[in-house]
Each structure stands twice: as structure tokens, then as C-alpha cells.
Fold:
Amino acid sequence: MGTTVRQATRATVQLARGVAMTLGTYLFVTALLIATMGTLFVVGAWMLPEAVLLVRRIAGARRRQVAGWSGREIAEAYRPLDGRPLRERFVVAVRDPGTFRDLRWMLAQYAYGLLGLLAVPLWIVGLPVDGVWCGLLRRRALVLPLIGRLADLDARWSTALLKPSPKALLTERVEELAETRAGVIAAHEAELRRIERDLHDGTQARLVALSMRIGLAKRAYDRDGGGDPEAARRLLAQAQDQAEEALTELRHVVRGIHPPILTDRGLAGAVQALAAGSGLQVALDVEELATGSRAPAAVEAAAYFLVAEALTNAAKHSGSDRAEVRLARVPHGLAVCVRDEGKGGAEEADGTGLLGLRRRIAALDGTAYVSSPAGGPTVVAAELPYTW
Structure:
């Protein structure tokens, strides 16, 4: 009987919150009607977007109430109103599909929002009936569980009315894809500029110097009086060194585009090579990826560059000589986590390359996470979705 009473009490509290919100919406309708009438007379057109924002907050509070009862979150899909000119805010507020769904829920709430008041007679009847039936006769309670069913019914109706429409979800998805596409374009342009700069300032300069050395060596051989073989030999040796340096820089540029070691050894082997060359004591957990099917090339490249950037930042800025790297398969993709116990304080705006990595990962519909409070630790993590 005690368990039944506790469950009924919890359901009653949930229903009471719904009733309180319903009574509050009765009062809110007055403000909404005033905003609508003001809009009709143009003078109060600024009030409508504010009223819509208030409706969103009320609907959001109801979503949180229902999620607290059912354990399932209800997604939101609204077009943003903040930071826009008044005219644009007005148009968005009127045309947003989420506005009409919230208003539909608010009107329906008038019909079923006072459903929780039925809990009062159920308590009056249930306490004596279930007290005898359940407490004395040890049978299953009959009346008080109906309060929980009322709360479930109220939550189901609210969920059905407040969840975003397919059109709203599609609009949100289109806007998200447009944003990530812009980020990909910006990251691609930055990468092209980096490659161009590396080739111009490094490899091209060395090849020009190499050509000059070869020309000087040729002139040394062709000089009147039999030439100067020793000078030519020195120039050719210098030219050979510059050719090797140019090749090294070209390999560095190629690795920045797509590291060949990924193709040869896979992600686990490539990350092991990164750890070995980082100058840190790196604890690796990559054995799960050493066997089985490999991730797509784009996913492997994004994970590789994330680890490379995080280890480079740890070696340069963290002040710690230890780091941890973990790669793991998750149900819907690949999880990457790099952690160091350094001084923390890493920021994307500090030119650490974290912003470019976030854009690269977002282009794959992945999510990136950076936590670096002052004093550490610094954690750089990402989840890259795909099907194993």
C-alpha cells in the first residue's frame, strides 16, 4: 500500500503542475489577444514576436514537465527570433510552424489541462477502498493507480501536440546543413591557403634555390681553364641536400591532406605512430580498432587529425608530459577522446586549430567537445557517426 500511495502522490504532483500551467495559460490568453489586437492596428506590431517568445517558454516548460514524468525528451524546432530586425522577427513569428503547434497545444490544453482535478475524487475514494482492498486483503490496488494512468494520458497528449512536425524538423535540418556547409567551405578554403602557403614559402623556395645551385655548379664545370671540380662538387652536394629538404616538405604537405600512414596501417596504427612521435608519454586505448572492419576514409582522417592536433597542443601548451588517447567503436560510429592533465585554458579562438577540427567533424554530422578549465584537465572528444 505504501508503494501505491507514493506512486499516486508523484502522479498527483505531475497532474497538479499541469493544472497550474493550464490556469496560467488562461491568464496568458489575455496578453495574447492584446498583442493580436495591437498588431491589427500596427502600433503594437512589436508585441507579437514577444508574445510568441513567451508562448515558446511556456511550451518549453511543459516539455520539461512531461520529460520529467515520462523520461523521454521532447525535441524543439523553432526558427530563431533574437537578433533580427522587427519586420523580420514579425514575419518569422507568424510563419514558423512551431508557433502554430504551440498555439494548438495551448488551445487543447484548455480541454484536457484540468484533467488532473480528477485526482481529488480518486484520492477521496481510493484511500478507503484501496486501504481495505490492498492494505488488509493484500490485493492489488484498484483506484489509486488510476491517478498514474491519468498522468500518463496527460503526458501522451502533450507529447503528441508538442513534438515538432516533420516540416519543422526538415526546416531545422536544412538550416543545420546550410550552416555546416558554410563551415566546410570556410575550412576547405583555409586548408587550400595553408597548402598554398606551405608550397610557396617552403617547397617552391627550396626548388628555386636548388635550380640556382645546379646552375652555379654547371658554370663551375664550364669555367675557362678546366673549371673548378671541387666547387662544383660542393654546389651539387648542397643541391642534393636542398632536394631532400624539398621532398621532406612535400611529404609534410601530403600528410596534411591525407596521411599515407592511414592507408597503410589504418587508424589504430597511425595513432600509435602519432603517439610515438609526440614527445609525450601517451597511454593508448586503440586495440578495439586494430581488428575488424575499418571506418570510412573521411572518418578516419577526421579522427586522425583530431588526435594529432590535441597531442600537438598538449605538447606545446599544457605543461604536462602525459596524455591519454582512446578510440572506441560506439553503436552509431566512432568515439575519439584525448586527455591531458596540464594547466588547461585551451580556447578555440586562440588559433589552436580546434575550430577547424570542429568544422571538419560537423561536415560529417559528428559532434566535437572541448573541456579545458583553468588548472586542467583538457579533454578533446568527438563522435563521428557511421554504420559499422
User: Anything to note?
Assistant: Residues 115 and 153 are 9 Å apart (CA to CA). The beta strands are 281-285, 322-330, 333-340, 367-371, 378-385. The radius of gyration is 33 Å. The chain is about 65% helix and 10% strand.
